[in-house]
Amino acid sequence: MAKLQLWLLILAGLSGALAQEDLYRKVFIFRTDPSEAYVVVKPEPERPLQNFTVCLRSYTDLSRPYGLFSYATKAQYSEILLFKPKPGEYRLYVGGEFVTFRVPSSHMDWEHVCASWESATGIAEFWVNRKPLPRKGLRKGYSVGAEAVIILGQEQDAFGGGFDFYNSFTGEMTDVYMWEYGLSPGKMRAAYQSLPLPPCLLGWRNLQYEVRGDVVVKPRLRESLII
Ligand SMILES: *[C@@H]1O[C@H](CO)[C@@H](O)[C@H](O)[C@H]1NC(C)=O
Questions:
Q1: Which distant-in-sequence residues (6+ apart) come within 8 Å of 108 by Cβ?
Q2: Domain total of the chain
Q3: Is the CB of 122 under 6 A from ligand 1?
Q4: How remote is the CA of residue 61 from the centroid of ligand 1, in Å?
Q5: What CA–CA distances, in Å, run from 109 to 112, 120, 171?
Q6: 225 found inside a domain
Q7: Is residue 227 part of a domain?
Q8: pLDDT tens-digit map of 166-201
Q9: Is 118 in the pocket of ligand 1 (CB under 6 A)?
Q10: pTM assigned to the model
Q11: 121 in a structural domain
Q12: What is the Å distance from ligand 1's center to 53 Cα?
C-alpha cells in the first residue's frame, strides 16, 4: 500500500472520519425508486459561510420531485438545498427560503448544475450545462450555519434524516463539489468541462463519503470522448 493511502487510513481512523477516494470518472448509482438510500459527504465547513458554490452532474428519468444536495444544520434543515420539483425546474434553498430557476428540458441527458450564493447581495447564480440563468436573489445578509450534515440523494427534513422517500433521487450522480466562495464564470465553465478546479471544501477527486443503503459506485458510461 502506498504511504499516502496508509497515512489517510490512519488519519481517518483517528478522527473517526471516512476514508477518502478519488472518484474521477465514477458515478454513484442510486438504484431504487423510491429509495431510502443516500450518501453522506464530508467535510462540512468549520465556520459559517457568507458565500458558497455547489456543483454536481446528474442523470435520471424521474419526473417526480427529488432532492440532490441537502445541507442541514440543527437550526435549519434547508440551509442549502438543491431540489428539482419537476422536469425543467430547479429550486435553490438558502436558509429555508428558495428561488426557482427554469431550465431547458434535458432530453434525457446528463445535467450539470452549479449554484452559488453571496450574502452581501443575496445574489444566487444558477448555471446549467455551462449556461448562466437569469440571476435571482434571496437571504441577503444571511450567514449559512456550519456544523452541517451534507447528504446526496435525499432531502433532510430533520438534522441528518426525516426523508420523504418520494423525494429521493434515483439515477446517476457524479462530479459533486462544494466551495466556500463564489466561483468565477471561467471556473463555472471549467466545472462543466471537468477541467482542473480550484481548492474546494469537498470535491469528487478527493471525496470523503459514506453510502447508506442501495447506492453503487461504478465507472461512468461515456457516450463521447468530450466532457
Ligand atoms: C464573500 O464574497 C464577497 C464577494 O463576492 C467578498 O467581498 C467577501 O469578502 C466574501 N466573504 C467571505 C467571508 O469570504
A1: 61
A2: 1
A3: no
A4: 37
A5: 10, 35, 11
A6: no
A7: no
A8: 999 999 999 999 999 999 999 999 999 999 999 999
A9: yes
A10: 0.91
A11: yes
A12: 12
